[in-house]
Amino acid sequence: MRSGVIARKVGMTRVFTDAGEHVPVTVLQIDQCQVVAHRTTEKDGYVALQVGVGKAKVKNVSAAERGRFAVAKVEPKQKLAEFRVSEDSVIPVGAEITADHFIPGQFVDVTGTTTGKGFAGGMKRWNFGGLRATHGVSVSHRSIGSTGGRQDPGKTFKNKKMPGHMGVERVTTQNLKVVRIDPERGLVLVEGAVPGVAGGWIQIRDAVKRKLPAEVPHPGKFRENGSNGSASKEAPAEAPAAEENA
After folding, report:
1. Cβ atoms of 14 and 24 closer than 8 Å
2. pTM for this one?
3. What positions are modified (N5-methylglutamine) (predicted)?
4. Contact partners, residue 116, CB within 8 Å, separation at least 6
């Protein structure tokens, strides 16, 4: 199980296949996504990586947090997230995960915060049909109608679908296909829509319901702290068998 990354949603566009078909894609940018800390079984009871992205103002970071970032030798981060990993998928602290951590053709799960819609009615929030548009209805065509409260039970049950606040919820969209990557600019293009507004933070991780391709780098593609090149930990090649003497 590999680590995920935090990316910023840039917006939507489309790309064309070799057959001339257009594919709608969401552009996600990975910029300075660094490993900030490790979570170990001995100390925390589980194995995970804490990654951070974005540059935070020092005055907005507490002294304890500044000390933690100083130990990791990274700048204070604006957004932090934890990703559970297997013990053989731990990336060094301070390493920067790059866009070629993912490969075209693999499937990913993306998590974001949906766009806030404010206070919404039942038709917009729950897709209710509303009341009749003509006979017998006056100035309440978009009403939700009866909520079911009669003498028995004499109340409206909790969790009834009614007007209220809509949006600003954590939503995960699964099995989005990676169409293209651009490691130079840190871009990952995934097919389809991604929850959230342009400029919002998005978490990308390997799809849990799809088999991970064998070509993906393990534990991932990253740049060591202070290095310009990218690195990945690959399985060691088998040594050639020694020839037997005649």
Report:
1. yes
2. 0.81
3. 151
4. 166, 167, 168
